Amino acid sequence: MLTVHHLGKSQSERIVWLCEELGIPYELKVYDRHPVTRLAQPDYKALHPIGAAPVITDGDLVLAESAAIVDYIVARYGNGRLVLAADHPDFAQFLYWFHFANGTLQPATGRNMILGRLNLAADNPMLLAMKARLKLALDLVEARLGKADYLAGREFTTADIMNVFSLTTMRLFLPFDLAPYPAILAYLQRIGARDAYQRAMRKGDPDMAPLLT
Questions:
Q1: What is the mean pLDDT of residues 140-149?
Q2: Following CA atoms 165, 162, 108, 170 in sequence, which dihedral angle do they give, to the nearest 10 degrees?
Q3: Which fold has domain 91-194?
Q4: Domain covering 2-82+198-204 in this structure, CATH number
Q5: What is the pLDDT of residues 9-67, one digit of tens each?
Q6: What's this model's pTM, rounded to 2 decimal places?
Q7: Residue 46 has what pLDDT?
Q8: Among 101, 34, 42, 105, which residue's Cα sits nearest to residue 69?
Q9: I need a surface site. Which of 48, 56, 135, 150 has the fewest CB within 10 A?
Q10: Which residues contact 30 (CB under 8 A, 6 or more apart)?
Q11: CA 108 → CA 14, 48, 61, 127, distances in Å?
Q12: Residue 22 to residue 207: CA distance in whole angstroms
């Protein structure tokens, strides 16, 4: 049985959402964060040597890293759904935006979160550089969504599943304003209207209203 080990308010929401979109059977185990540190507790860290979310188990397999898990589940259980084939005209865009999530957008938010906790001066060069990097990433997403309903193009794909966390739940840890990005906000309304997304968020984080505005 495929089991999704979901750490509350974390990137593992991607995996819960993916399973709901595919409509596949899975067991969901939800783990709370430490009430003070807000980090994973020992029971979650024991699942995998890296000690971070997400983690799945499937029989004897233990697998971490959200992109690897998404690829694994789609290849094993997806029957070609939510990905674009190499001969699809939007294949290159699909690949780019799928990898943009963990290659550019999430690192930009994560670095700003860490720097924001260091009480650096507002004119600190590293802080300014990282804020500029995040703005550049958000500007690029805005430009893309001004031309396409979804990141790969017309079709909803795993590229969307990979990126939405950084635009929504991540703002609990790094608040940033999306008001300057109307195309992103319209996109998040489309995402929020998806039944599978609603089910995933209710199951994984029932105490949290999705940050779609």
A1: 98
A2: 10
A3: Glutathione S-transferase Yfyf (Class Pi); Chain A, domain 2 (1.20.1050)
A4: 3.40.30.10
A5: 999 999 999 999 999 999 999 998 877 666 777 888 888 888 888 999 999 999 999 99
A6: 0.94
A7: 83
A8: 101
A9: 135
A10: 6, 8, 203, 204
A11: 18, 25, 31, 11
A12: 24
Strand order in the sheet with 27-31: 27-31, 2-7, 55-58, 61-64
Q: Which of 178, 181, 174, 169 is nearest to 211 (CA)?
A: 169
Return d(Cα 202, Cα 16) in angstroms, integer: 10
Instruction: Name the residue among 146, 99, 108, 152 with its Cα closest to residue 127.
Output: 108
User: Domain extents for the chain?
Assistant: 2-82+198-204, 91-194
Place of tokens 């309304």: 189
What is the rounded CA–CA span in Å between residue 105 and residue 112?
Answer: 11
Distance CA 212, CA 94 (A): 23
Q: Say how many C-beta atoms besides its own lie within 10 A of residue 4's C-beta.
A: 27
**63 half-sphere exposure, CB direction, 13 A CA radius:** 18
pLDDT at 189: 98
Whole-number Cα distances in Å, 57 to 29, 153, 157, 195: 11, 32, 23, 25
**Tens of pLDDT along 59-88?**
999 999 999 999 999 999 999 999 999 999
